[in-house]
Design a protein that fits this description.
This protein has a single domain, classed as NAD(P)-binding Rossmann-like Domain (Rossmann fold), CATH 3.40.50. Helix 1 crosses helix 9, helix 3 runs parallel beside helix 4 and helix 4 packs parallel to helix 6. The chain is globular, with a radius of gyration of 17 Å. A 7-stranded parallel beta sheet has the order 3-2-1-4-5-6-7, with helices on both faces. Helix content is 49%, strand content 16%. The longest helix is centred in the middle third of the chain and has 29 residues. By secondary structure, the protein is α/β, with parallel strands linked by helices. The protein is built from 9 helices and 7 strands. The chain binds NADPH dihydro-nicotinamide-adenine-dinucleotide phosphate (NDP). The site of NADPH dihydro-nicotinamide-adenine-dinucleotide phosphate has 29 residues, from helix 1 and helix 7. This is Beta-ketoacyl-ACP reductase. InterPro entries: Acetoacetyl-CoA_reductase (IPR011283), KR_dom (IPR057326), NAD(P)-bd_dom_sf (IPR036291), Sc_DH/Rdtase_CS (IPR020904), SDR (IPR050259), SDR_fam (IPR002347). GO terms for molecular function: acetoacetyl-CoA reductase activity. It holds the Pfam family adh_short. One of its GO terms (biological process) is monocarboxylic acid metabolic process.
C-alpha cells in the first residue's frame, strides 16, 4: 500500500518540526508548508542531517490563492493529502486599548482564515478518498481567554466552532476533524516571553513544567491514525493541568 501524505502547516516551527518528525516515524510522506522558503530550505537540510527526508511547499496560509497553488503542487508531485495539520500560527499581542486593527486582522487571517483555506483545498480530495484527518492546533488561550491576546484568543476559540461544524458535515464520509489545545510548550514562541513572566506562568502549571513539542506531536499521531475514526469534533487539551474542562 502506498504511503499516506501528511501536510503540516508551519511545519518548520517548534511544534511543527516535532509533528513532522513523528508523522514521518509513523510512515507518512510528510510535507512541511512554510511561508519563508529560504528558512524552509535550511530547515530541510538540517532535518536531512538528522535522518529525516521532508518535502516542503511554499504556502501563505492566510492567502486562499496561495493555499490552492500549494495544494496543487503537492497533489501533482506526491498525491492527495490524507492528513492535514493546521498548525501555523502567530501572535501579535497587546492590550485591546492599544491593539491596532492590523494586529487583530493579521492574527485572525493567519490563525483562523488559514483553517478555512487549507481545509477547503484538502476537503474535496479527502471526500473522493473517503478518508481524511484534519487536526487543528488551537491553544489553551482559545479555551480560557488571555489578557493581551483578544486577537489570538478569538482566533483560537474560532477553531473550536469550525472543528465541531465541519466534523458534523464530514462524519459519515470517513473524515474526522479535531482540535488539540496545547498549554505552554517550550518553543521559541514561549521562550521569547520575559523570564520573570515565564516563571510566573510556570508556577501556574500543576505539573510544574512547560510541555514538550513531542507531547503535542504524539497526540497528532494518535488522532491521525486509521483507527481514530470514532474521534471527531473533539478537543484534546494538553496543558499540564493548567485548565481543566
Ligand atoms: P513557531 O513560531 O515555532 O511556529 C509557527 C509556524 O507558523 C512557523 O513555522 C511559521 O513559519 C508558520 N507561519 C506563520 N505565519 C504563516 C503563514 N502566513 N503561512 C504559513 N506558515 C506560517 O510556533 P509554535 O511551534 O510554538 O506554535 C505552533 C502552533 O501551536 C501555533 O498555531 C501556536 O499558536 C500553537 N500553540 C503554541 C503554543 C506554545 O506554547 N508554543 C501554545 C498553544 C498553541 P515561518 O517560520 O516560515 O514564518
Amino acid at each position: 500500500m502506498s504511503k499516506k501524505i501528511a501536510l503540516v502547516t508551519g511545519g518548520t516551527g517548534g511544534i511543527g518540526t516535532a509533528i513532522c518528525r513523528r508523522l514521518s516515524d509513523d510512515g507518512y510522506v510528510v510535507v512541511a508548508a512554510s511561508v519563508n522558503q529560504e528558512k524552509a530550505e535550511a530547515w530541510k537540510e538540517a532535518e536531512k542531517a538528522s535522518g529525516y527526508d521532508f518535502a516542503t511547499v511554499h504556502i501563505d496560509v492566510g492567502d486562499f490563492e496561495s493555499c490552492q497553488q500549494g495544494y496543487k503542487q503537492v497533489a501533482e508531485t506526491l498525491g492527495p493529502v490524507a492528513v492535514l495539520v493546521n498548525n501555523a500560527g502567530i501572535t501579535r499581542d497587546g492590550f485591546m486599548k492599544k491593539m491596532s486593527w492590523e494586529q487583530w486582522h493579521e492574527v485572525l487571517q493567519t490563525n483562523l482564515d488559514s483553517v478555512f483555506n487549507m481545509s477547503k483545498v484538502c476537503l474535496e480530495p479527502m471526500l473522493e478518498m473517503k478518508f481524511g484527518r484534519i487536526i487543528n492546533i488551537s491553544s489553551i488561550n482559545g479555551q480560557k481567554g488571555q489578557m493581551g491576546q483578544t486577537n489570538y484568543s478569538a482566533a483560537k476559540a474560532g477553531m473550536h466552532g469550525f472543528t465541531k461544524a465541519l466534523a458534523q458535515e464530514t462524519a459519515r464520509k470517513g473524515i474526522t476533524v479535531n482540535t488539540i489545545s496545547p498549554g505552554y510548550i517550550a518553543t521559541d514562541m514561549i521562550m521569547k516571553i520575559d523570564e520573570p513572566i515565564r516563571n510566573q506562568i510556570m508556577e501556574g502549571i500543576p505539573v510544574g513544567r512547560f510541555g514538550k513539542p513531542e507531547e503535542i506531536a504524539r497526540t497528532v499521531s494518535f488522532l491521525a491514525d486509521d483507527e481514530g475514526g470514532f474521534i471527531t469534533g473533539a478537543n484534546l487539551a494538553i496543558n499540564g493541568g493548567q485548565h481543566m474542562c
